Amino acid sequence: MKLIIAIIRDSDNEPVSQGLILAGFRVTEISSTGGFLRRGSTTLMIGMDDEKVDQAVQVIRQTAGPATEAGVKRGTLFVLNVENFDQV
Amino acid sequence: MANDPDPNPKAAPSAGQQPGHDDSHQVKHLMTAVIQIQDVENAVQALSASGIAVKTLASTGGFLRRRNVTLLIGLAEGQRELAVLALSKSCRRRVEYLVTPLEGSPFSLPLSTPVSVGGATIFTLAVERYEEF
């Protein structure tokens, strides 16, 4: 089991979340702020089985809009290993 | 929810295990638990009764776009079961009815769709280094 923490631009939240949900992933959003420019960003938490990580990354890459300004990254992804997953 | 029994008395027996400031209480795991907004008070109380500190973040579910809460919980070795127990007692799964308007109908007949809400989705991650100051 892996957990992807994806930091994306606010404007990409809608298409990326929809794309992930259509692909069968489950998403939790946290709205966050970048530390440097203080722009609004969205942090998505997506849990998945190990073999689905590549697919999720593909979906995020494809659904995030094109870069609008030079030097502004479209997304930052952290893929973390989940030691334990519980659902109660 | 008013019909939920108070889960806190059951969590109370572990109240004696307050964290010490010795090496035995080193945070080794980070638990993130996504729970329903109405369960937050009970969950935080149940966790604190077990001697576990919590931070809450407001978050939103991706599918129904409902507001929920993400808890960040630092855990020492062996506290995971305690935390899962506290969360399972305080965050109950239940069925709610979501009213959606019937599309294409000349009358606005509401359609009740049962949705399962509540419960907790819990990820436990390893912490490489933890500092407190």
Structure description:
Chain A has two helices and four strands. Chain A is of the alpha+beta class and about 90 residues long. Chain A has a single domain (about 1-80), classed as Alpha-Beta Plaits, CATH 3.30.70.120. In chain A, β2 (about 25-35) and β3 (about 40-50) form a beta hairpin. The model of chain A has no long low-confidence stretch (mean pLDDT about 90). Chain B has about 130 residues and is of the alpha+beta class. Chain B has a single domain (about 25-125), classed as Alpha-Beta Plaits. Chain B has helices at about 10, 40-50, 80-90, and strands at about 25-35, 55-60, 65-75, 95-100, 110-120, 120-125. In chain B, the strands form two sheets. Chain B has a four-stranded antiparallel sheet with strand order 2-3-1-6, with helices on one face. Chain B has a two-stranded antiparallel sheet with strand order 4-5. In chain B, β2 and β3 form a beta hairpin. In chain B, α2 runs antiparallel to α3 (about 80-90). The N and C termini of chain B lie far apart (about 40 Å). The interface between A and B is medium-sized, with 23 and 26 residues. β4 (about 75-85) of chain A pairs antiparallel with β6 of chain B.
Task: Detail the topology: elements first, then pairings.
The complex is a heterodimer of chains A (88) and B (133).
Chain A: E1 2-9, H1 10-22, E2 26-33, E3 40-48, H2 53-63, E4 75-87
Antiparallel strand pairs in A: 1-3, 1-4, 2-3
Chain B: H1 8-11, E1 27-36, H2 40-49, E2 54-61, E3 67-76, H3 80-90, E4 93-101, E5 110-118, E6 120-126
Antiparallel strand pairs in B: 1-3, 1-6, 2-3, 4-5
